[in-house]
Amino acid sequence: MRYLPLAGRLGAGLLGLALAACSQETAMTTDTSAANTSSVTTHGALITRAQGLEAPRAEQRPVTIEQVGFTRVDEYQWIKDENWQQVMREPEVLDSDVRELLDAENAYLDNVMAPTEALQERIFQEIRGRIKEDDSSVPERDGDYAYYTRYREGGQYPVFARRPVNPETGEPMGDEEVLVDGDAEAADFDYLDFSDMEHSPDHRYVAFGVDVRGSEYYEIRVKDVATGAIVATLTDESSGDFTWANDSATLYWVWRDDNGRSKRVYRQPANGGPSELVYEEPDDGFFVSVGLSDNNNHIVINAGGHTSNEMRLIDANDPAAEPVLIAAREDDVEYYLTEASDRFYFRTNIDGAVDYKIMSAPLDNPGRENWEDFVPHRPGTLINGVIGFADWQVRVERENALPRIVVHEYATGEEYNIDFDEEAYSLGASAGYEFATDILRFSYESPSTPEETYDFNLRSQERTLLKRQEVPSGHNPDDYVVRRIMAPGHDGAQIPVTILHHRDTPIDGSAPLMLYGYGSYGITIPAAFRVTPLSLVDRGMVYATAHIRGGMANGYQWYLDGKLEQKINTFRDFVSSGEALAELGYTSRGQIVAYGGSAGGLLVGAAINLQPDLFAGAIAAVPFVDVINTMSDPELPLTPPEWPEWGNPIESADDYQTMIEYSPYDQIQEMAYPHVLATGGLTDPRVTYWEPTKFVARLRDRRTDDGLTLLKMNMGAGHGGASGRFDSLRETALNWAFALMVVGLADDEVDAIAAE
Length: 756
Description:
By secondary structure, the chain is an alpha+beta fold. 19% of the residues lie in helices and 31% in strands. The protein starts with 43 loop residues before the first helix and ends with a helix.
């Protein structure tokens, strides 16, 4: 697929990090009235039984840390294995004391959740029943072939395949050729993840990246489609990012260093000949990626941090060519290119264009001095991405927390919008393989409407429905209600909140509610259709997503207002969203389950420190909760790149003070907390295994009530959890059973299942 930098960040995965604690700390403003002595609300026999079980207690080995004029004590620093880099690649070398603790935590969790095993199985089967097992993507034409991905009945992993196309109609015809069989590749491994999967321009080869540990180091393999033979394995030290040159004989791929940072681009013959270094990034705060321009004429090397980047171009028709810099990096300036027939177009925030504008320059002289305004900056209208075609430019914008697609015709300069009607929805747009076409492929969905995929004729504006997501077990959108409210924030900000509930759920304060959020890196959580929350919603829970500051739901300024010294806004927005939902009758205080993963786990941890009595429970998945320690360890993969996001507590006392006032691990108080489930992955390079482990250890030690503090550590996976499409659902089923248990919806169903 063509290079499509739809987001200005390095990716949704650029999150998190490592650890610490505190002796001198400034606590967040917390409503602890009667909280220091009271217990969390218990719900039925399941909670009562669980509270009678003995939880593990991690040994305390206090370490005093002096830093920028502050002192903190971390009693659980030892949980971080000194050889953590090796553990990422060889989990079996984990320190025996740490392994013993993790095994004990997993055993305790299994014991607590044992009565819900049948409920978990029922939830798992429900979710699986909503997934079409023998599903297939809509074929994407590239020349004489149509490429697609499919799953077989019962298959856990994708099958990548192609079929010849009718040259007149473009419709697939003839026999299928399997390029890579994911189930076969996974046969000998407990974990498998594919990165890029790209065929060569002449369609002879397919290259793909494979990670079998969850550590995100990928092996790049090149396969001859005709013979089925692997003709080369280029590396096992790749980020999984690569692209073909137009000679179909050369690959460009990205190398990761021992700390997991994407630092170099290599050029290498696809048959496995010697590799050649093309570019090396000297700044640990910048990662590199590689791709193709829209019309496949240029290899694009992007070196980017969180607030700035620079791009280099290589002639894709001349694999020996050297990279040429477009514009040198500047602090807080980003630009991303789209290529048309005669010009480059740049989505950029230069000259104070907070929500981005589009500029253009000649193909033969794209330097910064030649950039001209094409689409001006419009405050409050975020230009989120641009796709280039020969005759058209398509941009994805967001305004008032809703996306839209805007089409521009180069020849006439005329524009029009593709609009939609629901209160909340999500859009996706695909560049596809072909450049000289009038067809745009886009998708539409909402929390109640399964995904619909369309081909849209840019000239006639006709939509052709290609596929509607099938829910085999049945789904009626009319059974569900989708609402968008604006929650008042602590400072008057209006926070968009998307709500999904069953039409029969009473909105009188009696329903429990799951509140999901993220709120970092500018990532905006779409109002998309997901089959997993339906198992909560069908049982009477309301499911809400808070589009809080730190994301870009309301434009780039919404992101800026939730980072660095203003990061506390992210957490207060989440709390404000929960309070508004209670005031409007969607739930009530003490009946909310907070849910978030990675930086969203930071959100959950901070929120329960701020307002513990608002929540019945909290699920913190692979949570970035030990902010000070992580951001103080420059050896961790994502620490230097993320100083512009969080601050640098190694050099700045102000940054240190800001972080420690919200860092969930450092802010754990002696007070009552909601029930908590934290999860992690042993080989996770983004949020390392010791973060949730330390958080659980300290929370269990300091909480003054008898609430549950649980840890689920996946000993064979990384940041994304289990890799198979069905195995991962078991982790969701565990989370949902926990949520139902802590709000009192599990007991009767568990009893009913037992009586069947």
